[in-house]
Amino acid sequence: MSVRTLEGNARFWALAACLFWLAFTLFPLYWVVITSFKSPLGVVGGPTYIPFVDFEPTLTAWSELLSGQRGQFFSTFIASTIIGLSAAFLATAIGSMAAYALVRFTFEVRLLSAVIFVVIAFGGYLLCRHYLGVGQATSLIYAFIAALALSIISSRFKLPGPVLGNDDIVFWFVSQRMFPPIVAAFALYLMYTEMGKLGFKLVDTYWGLTFAYIAFSLPIVIWLMRDFFAALPIEVEEAAMVDNVPTWRIFFGIVLPMSKPGLIATFMITLAFVWNEFLFALFLTNSKWQTLPILVAGQNSQRGDEWWSISAAALVAIIPMVVMAGLLSRLMRSGLLLGAIK
Amino acid sequence: MSQVRLQQVTKSFGSVTVIPPLDLTIADKEFVVLVGPSGCGKTTTLRMIAGLEQATSGEIRIGDRDVTALRPGLRNCSMVFQNYALYPHMTVAENIGYGMKVRGTPKAEIDKAVTEAARILNLGAYLARKPSALSGGQRQRVAIGRAIVRQPDVFLFDEPLSNLDAKLRIEMRTEIKLLHRRLQTTVVYVTHDQVEAMTMADRVVVMNQGRIEQAADPITLYESPRNLFVAAFIGAPSMNFIEGSLDQGDGGPVFRGQDGVSVPIPAERVSALSPYAGQAVILGIRPEHTAPASGSDPSIKLKVTDIEPLGPHTLAIGKAGGAAFTAQMPANTRVGPDDSVDVQLDAQKMHFFLKSNGEALPR
Ligand SMILES: Nc1ncnc2c1ncn2[C@@H]1O[C@H](COP(=O)(O)OP(=O)(O)OP(=O)(O)O)[C@@H](O)[C@H]1O
Ligand SMILES: [Mg+2]
Questions:
Q1: Test site for ligand 1: of B22, B35, B43, B196, most ligand atoms within 8 A of the Cβ
Q2: CB 3.0-4.6 Å disulfide test: which of A65, A249, A289, B5 passes with B61?
Q3: A163, A234, A235, A242, best to mutate vs chain B, most B CBs in 10 Å
Q4: Which residues contact residue A120 at a Cβ distance below 8 angstroms, ignoring those fewer than 6 apart?
């Protein structure tokens, strides 16, 4: 059934409901746009709705924003762009490799090896920290390396207990997105500062934030790409295997081009996540590598409620995502995301 | 020399044994067709030769190399898949030349090989197209082109024609046969279509539940099937079977079935069959070896339930001797459902099988 088939009153109400919903969703955007062109007086002096009629638009907010009077706007925009693009790219690249491995190869992880990892990681850390008097970061590193090595070695033996397969591994990845990010953000901040004390500066650096974003995008990337790879016909890869094409070439030369639509979609979803992310950026940066969401929020806290400049900054943060959504929908309409595998 | 030998090869998936120990030797330049009902292990056997499936035990040799543990790329086989498995993002030319490109062959040489393959397969006009812009038959030819530029020791085909329509299938059948004659390469070809098997093969391997029931040239399979399974599988419409026993009649040994079926055994076969007197046997006769009763050959009564006029001749389908029976009649025969006709059996072409194990009795 479509709205077109409705008659008379029903049609009128359906249309009215749709228009109402449209206005409801567009109004905030409209409000932000006009607010960004209002003068401070125009904002505090009560609601005005129509430019040139209700109020005289000014470019004050925009010129203040772009001239850098309100925080390092350009450098923030560039930092956001660099971190967003590179984190999304790296996460998509690494995540697709992991997803491909999880689709095409069988993994068997013994639960006991995983338990060994957890026990040694925690126990080793506590041991180093409290009984051997080693520094925080150093204990972390020692414990982690020991845990990783021992669990890998132990997985070589036929340990008793249940064996985890590919699905369990995927679930483990995805489950990392289930706890509240604030937990991880706080822990990450502590870890980064400890690393900083060792001489590896991570707080407020490009790599620090990018690493965090890659790590937190990976579960989604793996989950999405796994479905794309699983939908590919395996015979194509088998044909290449029989033809003596090396595995890495099968992946880069055949599998990736075949899943281009999936890669593009995943990249964009990851980019949107990183672009809009607030919590990690708040904890892990303070000036140089601040991102746009922090800048927008900062408009408020630093100078009181200056809605005109908040609006201008918010628009700048929104526009790239609007452009991307437009691109994505065009890709979808041109069928690139659907009909490529045939 | 690219003989293929499977020695005591088995395959299990987990606890399920799909192929019990299997021995098969395929001679150099031979065109062997593996045929059998769905799920009998044809694809599994082929994939073990290609290396896409690891044999659980046993040994696989190609030429004089033991390839059992080699990965697929090192076995120098080419495989053509049922669903073509072309690289969708490459043009026809790139599809055919990709393997060579990966192996670092100079571009001029690749171009030459691609052009040559395109000429053989009539693909010249499509070299710049993507697979999605090709018909099924053209895609299948591209897949074959990709296989031949490899210059493999062995060609492996897994039901390459089953996605094509009937007419195209017959054309491609001929093309593949011609190709084999031209390239003189060993071919292992899998199909579940016995007509395809019979028309293409030098030797047909009939498989059932992972075992080889009989491996022989098409005419031998047709004329002297080794057991009931092969007899029923080969030939269309398939052979008629009547259960009964070998008895001593008035004028010599006879085959007796239900509903008064009584077929005298021809004199020249008496000595071969006499050791089985008194045992339960099954008489097999192909529809094309039946006719309306007239001469001296033995005949049975067929209760017709349906007729199928095919043009050159008409099939009368019904029951005889308590079993389903199809008889072939001349096109002008006037029979209809519910008629009862006397059908004569060509005494020379009768087959007898032991009921207990399905083995064919000696002729
Ligand atoms: N990966 C697998 N795991 C478990 N069982 C399998 C697997 N692959 C095949 N089999 C089983 O092995 C048997 C033989 O399969 P195979 O694909 O070789 O049959 P086939 O003769 O090629 O049949 P078809 O004509 O339908 O293609 C089947 O019973 C199938 O269920
Ligand atoms: Mg098969």
A1: B43
A2: B5
A3: A242
A4: A143, A146, A147, A150, A151
Q: Is the pLDDT of residue B99 over 90?
A: yes
The ipTM value here is 0.86
Q: Which residue has the tokens 């029979």?
A: B335
CA distance B303 to B323: 10
Q: Which residues contact B36 (CB under 8 A, 6 or more apart)?
A: B42, B192, B206, B207, B208, B213, B233
Pick the CATH number of A72-107+172-180+198-331 from 1.10.3720.10, 1.10.510.10, 3.60.15.10, 2.60.40.10: 1.10.3720.10
Sorted by where each begins, the domain ranges of chain A are 72-107+172-180+198-331, 108-164
In 3D, which of A82, A102, A96 has the Cα closest to residue A220?
A96
In whole numbers, what is the pLDDT of chain A averaged over residues? 86
Determine the length of chain A.
342
Region A249-272: what's the mean pLDDT? 91
Please give the average per-residue pLDDT across B279-286, as a whole number: 92
Q: Which two tokens stand for residue B245?
A: 């026993």
Q: Using DSSP, state whether A318 is helix, strand or coil.
A: helix
Residues B121 and B251 in one domain: no
> From B50, which residue of chain A is nearest by alpha-carbon distance?
A242
CA dihedral sign of residues A302, A304, A308, A314: positive
pLDDT band at residue B267 under the 50/70/90 scheme: confident
CA distance A340 to A333: 13
Domain extent, residue B220, equals: 4-227
Residue of A92, A233, A310 whose CA lies nearest to B85: A233
Residue B143: half-sphere exposure toward Cβ, Cα within 13 Å: 30
